[in-house]
Amino acid sequence: MDASFIAKKSIENLISELEVEGAIAPKSESTRSPRAKKYIEFQKFYNIFLIVFIPSLLYAICRYTIQHNEPWYDLPFYLLNKTLGVSSVIIMSLAYIIGPLAKFSSRYKKYLGHRKYFGIGGFFLGTSHGAMSLLLMSPNNYEVFYNLETGRLNWQGSLSMLFGTLALFHLFFIAIISLPPVMREMHAKQWKNIQKGGIIALLITFLHIAAFGYKSWFNLDKWYGGMPPFSLVGASSILIILFIRKIITLHNQAHGKKTLLNFYQNTHKHLH
Ligand code: HEM
After folding, report:
1. Residue of minimum CA distance from atom 32 in ligand 1
2. 238: closest CA among 206, 210, 213, 212?
3. Which of 119, 143, 202, 263 is 20 to 30 A away from residue 152, measured at CA?
4. Residue 42: CB partners within 8 Å, gap ≥ 6?
5. Is residue 86 within 6 Å of ligand 1 at its C-beta?
6. Which sign does the torsion angle of CA 24, 25, 30, 34 carry?
7. 64, 173 in Cβ contact below 8 A?
8. Whole-angstrom Cα distance, residue 171 to residue 163?
9. CB neighbourhood size of 224 (10 A)
10. pLDDT at 181
């Protein structure tokens, strides 16, 4: 490798480290080195992950271990798996609210760069949850998924597994096209449309959860200690985000705010 290339990379590393540690301050956010920007964005994502994950885990302990008397040995795997599923949904929902919020008010534009980390973070949490669930799959762990006489999946189990797998495939595809080499090869409009289609992964996840959880949502006896089931927490976070997105879109339409895509389409029309 060329010595000047190595020297340049070392200097870039050094500058970004000094910026991150606050030893040198960039003149403004836009002059911050790209590496330092990425580091800081990732750090912020990590903080948000903890803000979502830790309360979710505490909720799981209160609801399942303390209120429903499930054994403590369920905590390291069975309950952790539930918490990962819910955290994944909440983090992915956040990824899909940042864009509309930034169009609503420029105050939120600074969070646009975080979407990538939310999307990829949500994908990794969802994958871990999917893999852990497969290890746990048995009528003893998930009675509601099985026909207890035959020991095979019932309708609820089959549909929930189908939607879980589809959601995971969808997220995997989106994560792949977020990789810089793949992104560079794609047309910007096509890339953006596919990313927007990620909202479909959220809808499929809703079906994954609703397929097995809907009965417990309306049965208050299942709200141990008055706490709603985790499936309802996950499903509600998706519905709330879809609702807020709709409101913001309607608000922006009413106030004549144009999205980047509208702008692109209009410019394109005028050129032809
Ligand atoms: C192959 C993929 C997947 C499989 C096999 C799977 C399996 C499961 C199982 C067995 C449950 C029931 C857990 C329980 O009641 O304790 C569950 C719940 C859940 N899953 Fe998945 N899942 C998959 C993908 C996903 C993905 C991609 C997400 C999120 C993006 C997700 C989010 C959730 C949520 C929020 C719950 C409700 C939590 C609860 O009530 O326990 N799942 N999943």
Report:
1. 85
2. 206
3. 202
4. 117
5. yes
6. positive
7. no
8. 12
9. 16
10. 87
